Protein backbone atom coordinates (compact mmCIF):
# COMPACT_ATOMS: atom_id res chain seq x y z
CA UNK A 1 0.00 0.00 0.00
CA UNK A 2 1.36 3.41 -0.93
CA UNK A 3 1.44 5.81 1.99
CA UNK A 4 1.45 9.58 1.74
CA UNK A 5 1.75 11.40 5.03
CA UNK A 6 1.39 15.13 5.51
CA UNK A 7 4.56 16.63 6.98
CA UNK A 8 2.59 18.16 9.81
CA UNK A 9 -0.66 17.14 11.45
CA UNK A 10 -3.31 18.26 8.98
CA UNK A 11 -6.89 19.00 9.82
CA UNK A 12 -9.76 16.90 8.53
CA UNK A 13 -13.44 16.65 9.21
CA UNK A 14 -16.45 14.68 8.16
CA UNK A 15 -18.92 16.37 5.86
CA UNK A 16 -22.12 15.01 7.29
CA UNK A 17 -24.40 16.28 4.59
CA UNK A 18 -27.01 13.74 3.63
CA UNK A 19 -25.67 11.13 1.25
CA UNK A 20 -27.78 9.36 -1.33
CA UNK A 21 -28.09 6.47 1.08
CA UNK A 22 -26.82 5.54 4.51
CA UNK A 23 -23.26 4.27 4.66
CA UNK A 24 -22.60 1.24 6.81
CA UNK A 25 -19.76 1.60 9.30
CA UNK A 26 -18.02 -0.86 11.59
CA UNK A 27 -16.38 0.82 14.56
CA UNK A 28 -13.63 -0.89 16.51
CA UNK A 29 -13.50 0.72 19.94
CA UNK A 30 -10.38 1.20 22.04
CA UNK A 31 -11.81 -1.15 24.66
CA UNK A 32 -11.98 -3.94 22.06
CA UNK A 33 -15.74 -3.80 21.46
CA UNK A 34 -17.10 -3.59 17.90
CA UNK A 35 -20.18 -1.59 16.89
CA UNK A 36 -21.90 -1.62 13.50
CA UNK A 37 -24.53 0.66 12.09
CA UNK A 38 -25.23 3.31 9.48
CA UNK A 39 -24.48 7.00 9.21
CA UNK A 40 -25.31 9.72 6.68
CA UNK A 41 -21.84 10.73 5.51
CA UNK A 42 -21.36 12.05 1.99
CA UNK A 43 -17.63 12.71 2.01
CA UNK A 44 -14.54 13.28 4.10
CA UNK A 45 -12.90 16.70 3.92
CA UNK A 46 -9.13 16.57 4.40
CA UNK A 47 -6.98 19.69 4.61
CA UNK A 48 -3.26 19.01 4.04
CA UNK A 49 -0.13 20.98 3.20
CA UNK A 50 -0.96 20.23 -0.41
CA UNK A 51 -4.46 21.69 -0.31
CA UNK A 52 -7.91 20.60 0.70
CA UNK A 53 -9.24 17.24 -0.47
CA UNK A 54 -12.92 16.34 -0.58
CA UNK A 55 -12.95 12.55 -0.69
CA UNK A 56 -16.27 10.84 -1.59
CA UNK A 57 -17.19 8.31 1.06
CA UNK A 58 -17.48 5.60 -1.62
CA UNK A 59 -13.71 5.89 -2.12
CA UNK A 60 -12.88 5.70 1.58
CA UNK A 61 -11.77 2.28 2.75
CA UNK A 62 -11.09 2.90 6.41
CA UNK A 63 -10.31 5.53 9.01
CA UNK A 64 -7.69 5.00 11.70
CA UNK A 65 -7.92 7.36 14.63
CA UNK A 66 -4.72 8.43 16.30
CA UNK A 67 -4.35 10.05 19.71
CA UNK A 68 -3.72 13.76 19.44
CA UNK A 69 -3.13 16.29 22.15
CA UNK A 70 -3.43 20.07 22.53
CA UNK A 71 -1.45 22.94 24.05
CA UNK A 72 -3.49 23.09 27.25
CA UNK A 73 -2.88 19.39 27.90
CA UNK A 74 0.83 19.67 27.08
CA UNK A 75 1.25 22.63 29.44
CA UNK A 76 -0.55 20.83 32.25
CA UNK A 77 1.45 17.63 31.77
CA UNK A 78 4.72 19.58 31.77
CA UNK A 79 3.84 21.26 35.05
CA UNK A 80 2.79 18.02 36.74
CA UNK A 81 5.89 16.11 35.59
CA UNK A 82 8.11 18.84 37.05
CA UNK A 83 6.35 18.37 40.39
CA UNK A 84 7.35 14.68 40.33
CA UNK A 85 10.85 15.91 41.24
CA UNK A 86 9.63 17.87 44.28
CA UNK A 87 11.34 16.86 47.53
CA UNK A 88 7.94 16.77 49.22
CA UNK A 89 6.51 13.26 48.84
CA UNK A 90 2.91 14.45 49.20
CA UNK A 91 3.44 16.95 46.38
CA UNK A 92 4.85 14.19 44.18
CA UNK A 93 1.90 11.92 44.97
CA UNK A 94 -0.64 14.67 44.26
CA UNK A 95 0.98 15.43 40.90
CA UNK A 96 1.07 11.73 39.98
CA UNK A 97 -2.58 11.20 40.98
CA UNK A 98 -3.59 14.16 38.85
CA UNK A 99 -1.61 12.83 35.88
CA UNK A 100 -3.31 9.43 35.88
CA UNK A 101 -6.74 11.05 36.14
CA UNK A 102 -6.24 12.96 32.88
CA UNK A 103 -8.00 11.96 29.66
CA UNK A 104 -6.49 10.11 26.70
CA UNK A 105 -4.94 13.29 25.27
CA UNK A 106 -2.36 13.17 28.07
CA UNK A 107 -0.79 10.00 26.65
CA UNK A 108 1.01 11.56 23.65
CA UNK A 109 1.96 14.57 25.79
CA UNK A 110 3.64 12.39 28.44
CA UNK A 111 5.11 10.12 25.78
CA UNK A 112 6.79 13.02 23.99
CA UNK A 113 8.38 14.20 27.23
CA UNK A 114 9.52 10.77 28.44
CA UNK A 115 11.16 9.93 25.09
CA UNK A 116 12.65 13.37 24.54
CA UNK A 117 16.45 13.62 24.49
CA UNK A 118 16.14 16.52 26.94
CA UNK A 119 14.12 14.55 29.50
CA UNK A 120 15.74 14.17 32.89
CA UNK A 121 13.93 11.59 35.05
CA UNK A 122 13.18 12.43 38.64
CA UNK A 123 15.72 11.26 41.20
CA UNK A 124 12.77 9.84 43.16
CA UNK A 125 11.54 6.41 42.07
CA UNK A 126 8.16 6.34 43.81
CA UNK A 127 6.06 8.47 41.41
CA UNK A 128 7.48 8.65 37.89
CA UNK A 129 6.31 9.91 34.49
CA UNK A 130 7.07 6.49 32.98
CA UNK A 131 4.75 4.79 35.46
CA UNK A 132 2.03 7.38 34.82
CA UNK A 133 2.31 6.77 31.06
CA UNK A 134 1.96 3.02 31.49
CA UNK A 135 -1.02 3.45 33.80
CA UNK A 136 -2.82 5.74 31.35
CA UNK A 137 -2.09 3.40 28.43
CA UNK A 138 -3.59 0.53 30.40
CA UNK A 139 -6.59 2.63 31.39
CA UNK A 140 -7.42 3.54 27.78
CA UNK A 141 -6.18 0.27 26.22
CA UNK A 142 -3.48 2.02 24.18
CA UNK A 143 -0.49 -0.05 23.08
CA UNK A 144 3.09 1.08 22.50
CA UNK A 145 3.73 2.51 19.06
CA UNK A 146 0.42 4.36 18.89
CA UNK A 147 0.15 7.12 16.32
CA UNK A 148 -0.63 10.73 17.08
CA UNK A 149 -2.02 11.11 13.56
CA UNK A 150 -5.31 9.99 12.10
CA UNK A 151 -4.94 8.09 8.83
CA UNK A 152 -7.47 7.78 6.01
CA UNK A 153 -7.21 4.84 3.58
CA UNK A 154 -8.41 5.52 0.04
CA UNK A 155 -9.35 2.92 -2.60
CA UNK A 156 -7.36 0.19 -0.79
CA UNK A 157 -4.14 1.69 -2.22
CA UNK A 158 -3.33 4.99 -0.57
CA UNK A 159 -3.10 6.34 2.96
CA UNK A 160 -2.92 9.96 4.07
CA UNK A 161 -2.18 11.24 7.55
CA UNK A 162 -3.92 14.15 9.21
CA UNK A 163 -6.29 15.00 11.99
CA UNK A 164 -10.06 14.61 12.05
CA UNK A 165 -11.76 17.43 13.84
CA UNK A 166 -15.08 15.72 14.44
CA UNK A 167 -15.78 15.02 18.10
CA UNK A 168 -18.24 12.14 17.71
CA UNK A 169 -19.87 9.73 15.29
CA UNK A 170 -23.65 9.42 15.17
CA UNK A 171 -24.28 5.75 14.46
CA UNK A 172 -27.75 4.37 13.77
CA UNK A 173 -27.92 0.85 15.22
CA UNK A 174 -30.63 -1.67 15.97
CA UNK A 175 -30.71 -0.22 19.49
CA UNK A 176 -31.22 3.34 18.29
CA UNK A 177 -28.87 6.15 17.31
CA UNK A 178 -25.72 6.35 19.40
CA UNK A 179 -23.37 9.33 19.63
CA UNK A 180 -19.92 7.84 20.10
CA UNK A 181 -17.05 10.12 21.22
CA UNK A 182 -14.05 10.18 18.90
CA UNK A 183 -11.56 9.34 21.64
CA UNK A 184 -13.27 6.00 22.25
CA UNK A 185 -12.87 4.90 18.61
CA UNK A 186 -9.73 3.20 17.31
CA UNK A 187 -10.68 2.23 13.75
CA UNK A 188 -13.60 2.64 11.34
CA UNK A 189 -14.28 0.30 8.40
CA UNK A 190 -16.44 1.81 5.67
CA UNK A 191 -18.75 -0.78 4.14
CA UNK A 192 -21.42 -0.75 1.46
CA UNK A 193 -24.71 -2.60 1.34
CA UNK A 194 -24.79 -2.79 -2.45
CA UNK A 195 -28.38 -1.62 -2.65
CA UNK A 196 -29.97 0.48 -5.37
CA UNK A 197 -27.92 2.68 -7.68
CA UNK A 198 -24.82 2.45 -5.51
CA UNK A 199 -24.36 -1.28 -6.18
CA UNK A 200 -21.55 -1.02 -8.77
CA UNK A 201 -17.92 -1.02 -7.66
CA UNK A 202 -14.49 -1.26 -9.31
CA UNK A 203 -11.35 -2.69 -7.72
CA UNK A 204 -7.77 -3.43 -8.74
CA UNK A 205 -6.20 -6.77 -7.82
CA UNK A 206 -2.40 -6.52 -7.71
CA UNK A 207 -0.39 -9.63 -8.57
CA UNK A 208 2.31 -8.44 -6.17
CA UNK A 209 -0.12 -8.70 -3.26
CA UNK A 210 -3.63 -10.01 -3.91
CA UNK A 211 -2.84 -13.71 -4.29
CA UNK A 212 -5.12 -16.21 -2.53
CA UNK A 213 -2.18 -17.99 -0.89
CA UNK A 214 -0.70 -14.77 0.49
CA UNK A 215 -1.45 -14.85 4.21
CA UNK A 216 -0.60 -11.17 4.63
CA UNK A 217 -3.29 -9.19 2.81
CA UNK A 218 -3.81 -11.58 -0.08
CA UNK A 219 -7.59 -11.15 0.01
CA UNK A 220 -8.89 -7.69 -0.87
CA UNK A 221 -11.72 -6.66 1.45
CA UNK A 222 -14.21 -4.98 -0.87
CA UNK A 223 -16.30 -3.41 1.87
CA UNK A 224 -19.39 -4.83 0.14
CA UNK A 225 -21.85 -6.60 2.43
CA UNK A 226 -23.99 -9.19 0.64
CA UNK A 227 -27.00 -11.08 1.88
CA UNK A 228 -28.00 -14.68 1.31
CA UNK A 229 -29.67 -14.92 -2.10
CA UNK A 230 -28.44 -11.54 -3.34
CA UNK A 231 -27.43 -11.32 -7.02
CA UNK A 232 -23.68 -10.92 -7.60
CA UNK A 233 -22.07 -10.05 -10.95
CA UNK A 234 -18.29 -9.99 -11.35
CA UNK A 235 -16.33 -9.13 -14.50
CA UNK A 236 -12.57 -8.87 -14.77
CA UNK A 237 -9.91 -7.90 -17.30
CA UNK A 238 -6.14 -7.55 -17.40
CA UNK A 239 -3.09 -9.78 -17.27
CA UNK A 240 -0.81 -11.00 -14.50
CA UNK A 241 2.59 -12.66 -14.66
CA UNK A 242 3.29 -15.39 -12.11
CA UNK A 243 6.94 -15.59 -11.08
CA UNK A 244 5.85 -18.72 -9.21
CA UNK A 245 4.82 -20.34 -12.52
CA UNK A 246 7.94 -19.72 -14.62
CA UNK A 247 6.84 -16.23 -15.65
CA UNK A 248 3.68 -17.39 -17.43
CA UNK A 249 1.08 -14.71 -18.12
CA UNK A 250 -2.52 -15.37 -17.12
CA UNK A 251 -5.93 -13.81 -17.74
CA UNK A 252 -8.81 -13.67 -15.23
CA UNK A 253 -10.51 -16.66 -16.89
CA UNK A 254 -7.47 -18.78 -16.06
CA UNK A 255 -6.11 -19.03 -19.61
CA UNK A 256 -2.42 -18.57 -20.34
CA UNK A 257 -1.75 -15.59 -22.62
CA UNK A 258 -1.09 -16.92 -26.12
CA UNK A 259 -3.00 -20.15 -25.60
CA UNK A 260 -6.10 -21.09 -27.60
CA UNK A 261 -8.22 -22.01 -24.59
CA UNK A 262 -11.63 -20.36 -24.83
CA UNK A 263 -12.66 -17.72 -22.30
CA UNK A 264 -15.09 -19.18 -19.81
CA UNK A 265 -17.92 -17.72 -17.80
CA UNK A 266 -20.10 -19.12 -15.05
CA UNK A 267 -23.64 -18.44 -14.04
CA UNK A 268 -25.32 -19.95 -11.03
CA UNK A 269 -25.04 -20.34 -7.28
CA UNK A 270 -21.55 -19.91 -6.01
CA UNK A 271 -21.29 -23.27 -4.25
CA UNK A 272 -21.76 -25.47 -7.30
CA UNK A 273 -18.91 -27.91 -7.99
CA UNK A 274 -18.07 -26.20 -11.31
CA UNK A 275 -16.77 -23.18 -9.43
CA UNK A 276 -13.46 -24.83 -8.52
CA UNK A 277 -10.76 -22.29 -9.51
CA UNK A 278 -7.68 -22.68 -11.69
CA UNK A 279 -4.46 -20.64 -11.72
CA UNK A 280 -5.01 -17.00 -12.62
CA UNK A 281 -8.75 -17.03 -11.91
CA UNK A 282 -10.37 -14.16 -10.09
CA UNK A 283 -11.82 -15.80 -6.99
CA UNK A 284 -14.04 -14.63 -4.16
CA UNK A 285 -15.33 -15.65 -0.78
CA UNK A 286 -18.00 -14.39 1.59
CA UNK A 287 -16.76 -13.69 5.11
CA UNK A 288 -13.16 -13.22 6.22
CA UNK A 289 -12.96 -16.61 7.94
CA UNK A 290 -14.54 -18.54 5.05
CA UNK A 291 -12.38 -21.35 3.65
CA UNK A 292 -14.36 -21.61 0.41
CA UNK A 293 -12.32 -20.19 -2.48
CA UNK A 294 -14.89 -19.68 -5.24
CA UNK A 295 -14.27 -19.04 -8.93
CA UNK A 296 -15.45 -15.86 -10.59
CA UNK A 297 -13.10 -15.92 -13.59
CA UNK A 298 -13.54 -13.23 -16.24
CA UNK A 299 -17.32 -13.24 -15.92
CA UNK A 300 -19.57 -14.48 -13.16
CA UNK A 301 -23.27 -14.14 -12.43
CA UNK A 302 -24.76 -15.90 -9.45
CA UNK A 303 -26.51 -15.71 -6.12
CA UNK A 304 -24.83 -15.54 -2.74
CA UNK A 305 -25.52 -18.53 -0.56
CA UNK A 306 -24.32 -16.77 2.60
CA UNK A 307 -24.34 -13.34 4.17
CA UNK A 308 -21.25 -11.31 4.97
CA UNK A 309 -18.37 -9.28 3.60
CA UNK A 310 -17.27 -9.99 0.01
CA UNK A 311 -13.54 -10.64 -0.53
CA UNK A 312 -11.75 -11.10 -3.88
CA UNK A 313 -8.30 -12.36 -4.90
CA UNK A 314 -6.25 -14.00 -7.68
CA UNK A 315 -5.97 -17.78 -7.41
CA UNK A 316 -2.50 -19.27 -7.00
CA UNK A 317 -1.35 -21.87 -4.48
CA UNK A 318 2.12 -20.32 -4.13
CA UNK A 319 2.69 -16.63 -3.40
CA UNK A 320 5.67 -14.84 -4.95
CA UNK A 321 6.15 -11.10 -4.39
CA UNK A 322 7.96 -10.89 -7.76
CA UNK A 323 4.65 -11.35 -9.61
CA UNK A 324 3.64 -8.45 -11.85
CA UNK A 325 0.50 -7.09 -13.47
CA UNK A 326 -3.04 -6.56 -12.23
CA UNK A 327 -6.71 -7.24 -12.89
CA UNK A 328 -9.45 -4.63 -12.96
CA UNK A 329 -12.50 -6.15 -11.32
CA UNK A 330 -16.02 -4.74 -11.55
CA UNK A 331 -18.62 -5.97 -9.08
CA UNK A 332 -22.34 -5.35 -9.17
CA UNK A 333 -24.73 -6.47 -6.44
CA UNK A 334 -28.47 -6.05 -6.75
Give descriptors for this structure.
334 residues, mainly beta, Jelly Rolls, 3 domains, ten-stranded mixed β-sheet, six-stranded mixed β-sheet, 4 helices, 22 strands
Helical percentage? 10-25%
Q: At the first level of CATH, what is the class of the largest domain?
A: Mainly Beta
What is the CA-based Rg, rounded?
25 Å
The major pleated sheet works out as:
10 strands, mixed
Q: Number of helical runs?
A: 4
Shape: elongated
Q: Give the second-level CATH assignment, the architecture of the largest domain.
A: Sandwich
Mean pLDDT, rounded to whole units? 84
Taken as a percent bin, the fraction of beta residues is 35-45%
* Terminal-residue CA separation: 30 Å
Q: Are there runs of 5+ residues with pLDDT below 50, and where?
A: 1-20, 193-197, 262-273
Structural class: mainly beta
- Whole-number total of structural domains: 3
Order of SSEs: EEEEEEEHHHHEEEEEEEEEEEEEEE
CATH domain fold name of the largest domain = Jelly Rolls
CATH superfamily of the largest domain: Galactose-binding lectin
Total strand count, please? 22
Can I get a quick summary?
The chain has helices at residues 71-83, 89-100, 106-114, 129-139, and strands at residues 2-5, 11-15, 23-29, 34-39, 43-48, 51-56, 60-64, 150-154, 158-164, 168-173, 176-181, 185-191, 200-206, 220-226, 231-242, 248-250, 266-267, 282-286, 294-295, 299-303, 308-314, 324-333. The chain has 334 residues and is mostly beta strands.
Describe the structure.
The structure is a single chain. The N terminus is likely disordered. The strands form four sheets. Strands 1, 2, 3, 4, 5, 6, 7, 8, 9 and 12 form a ten-stranded mixed β-sheet that branches. Strands 13, 15, 16, 17, 20 and 22 form a six-stranded mixed β-sheet that branches. By secondary structure, the protein is mainly β. Helix content is 13%, strand content 39%. Strand 3 and strand 4 form a beta hairpin. It is elongated, with a radius of gyration of 25 Å. It folds into three domains: 108 residues, no CATH class; 69 residues, no CATH class; 138 residues, Jelly Rolls (Sandwich), CATH 2.60.120. The two termini are 30 Å apart. The chain is built from four helices and 22 strands.
